[in-house]
Amino acid sequence: MNNIKLSIVVPCYNSSDFISECIQSILPHLTNSIELIIVNDGSTDSSYEIITNIVQSYCNINVEIINQRNLGLSAARNKGIAAASGEYISFLDSDDFYHSDFWSEISPVIDDSTIDIVEFNAEQYEGDISNIVEHIDSAAFSGKTEITAIEKLTPAFKRCKWYPWARVYKTSLFRENNITFPHGRLYEDMNTIPFIYLKSSAIYGINKSLLWYRHHKKSITQTFRQKDLSDLVYAAQSLSLLAKDNPAIKRTLFPTIQRIFNFIKYTIIRNKGAKLTNQEQKTLRRALLIFINYFRVSRKAQILMLPLYLNTVVRFRKK
Fold first, then answer.
1. CA–CA dist 43, 80 (Å, integer)
2. Residue 151 in contact with residue 252, Cβ under 8 Å?
3. Please, are residues 203 and 150 in contact by the beta-carbon 8 Å criterion?
4. Are the C-beta atoms of 32 and 3 separated by less than 8 Å?
């Protein structure tokens, strides 16, 4: 009989500088009811050796190490979901680590199996945890909230903090709804976590920081790649398909779609040479049109004349 309550999935790719601190924040807390699944996503540095050396010093604990060729963060998380035995699942990036309070806060909440999502906050730091650069307030709810209507989800969707690692999820939400992280895509959180929320019946918010999130100057939000724009368009398209012909879902998803549109414009303004292809412009416009009634008038005009707007007006605003 399976008695695993929580599965923790740690994807790892070339994280030799940080993986030790990450898994050391988990290993001492593993019990018969908590398992750790480390997915080594084709690391070419010493990450795998570090992982195996550390794990060997812990006997009789629930640890599984999965090796796969480099397929990306989403594929590694999906592999972890497939391998998980727990009623609940969480994701921890290999360069981050849990606050010591994570265990005492999360464990009693997930004893209530009616909870679908447990959300909590995090602290982003640079160099040392004494150097906090941002408080990440992912928890939009306080205590248990029954989701009796889509509108009940409004606080979370207005906040738009869709970090996968800032929550613990009922594993069945992924499996029964065939929800996976999009393979090979950046901004995978915007594609996946809103869908999970739409399928939830009860959410529990913990307004405490239970995770340390490492700040990187070369993170995807700091270093532009053309793929960023393509994947943002993909995220907008995915959300539009969720919302199509359902006014309540449209209203709920609107803050996230607006954030994506603003981020696309910001990216084009800030980065020389950044542009959408003609097909991407068409795809984005179709996605935004699903939500057009919720935009203010000036934004509606931008959407209706999107190719012209992106190719002329935005360019003149470049610094």
1. 16
2. yes
3. no
4. yes
CATH architecture entry for 6-214: Alpha-Beta Complex (3.90)
In 110-265, DSSP assigns E strands to 117-126, 128-136, 143-146, 167-170, 202-214
Asked whether the beta carbons of 132 and 124 are under 8 A apart, the reply is: yes
Q: Pull the structure tokens for residue 67.
A: 């090796």
Task: Name residues whose C-beta falls within 8 Å of residue 231's C-beta, 6 or more positions apart in sequence.
Answer: 185, 186, 187
Torsion angle of C-alpha atoms 4, 89, 171, 123, degrees rounded to 10:
150
DSSP 181: P
Amino acid at residue number 35? E
Cα 251 to Cα 240: distance, rounded to the nearest angstrom: 11
> Which tens digit of pLDDT belongs to each residue from 173-222?
999 999 999 998 988 899 899 999 999 999 999 999 999 999 976 554 55
Cα 40 from Cα 197, distance rounded (Å): 28
Return phi, psi of residue 253, to 5°.
-80, -15
- Asked whether 38 and 8 are in contact (CB, 8 A), the reply is no
CB 221 within 8 Å of CB 189: no
Between CA 162 and CA 111 the distance in angstroms is: 24
Q: Band of the pLDDT at 223, cuts 50, 70, 90?
A: low
**Residue 168 tokens, joined:** 């613990």
Report the 10 Å Cβ neighbour count for 271: 16
37 vs 40: CA distance, rounded Å: 10
Contacts of 53 (CB under 8 A, 6+ apart): none
The answer for 127, left when phi > 0, alpha when psi is -120 to 50, beta otherwise, is left
Every domain of the chain and the residues it spans: 6-214, 226-316
pTM beyond 0.70: yes
CA dihedral defined by 122, 205, 84, 185, rounded to 10 degrees? -60
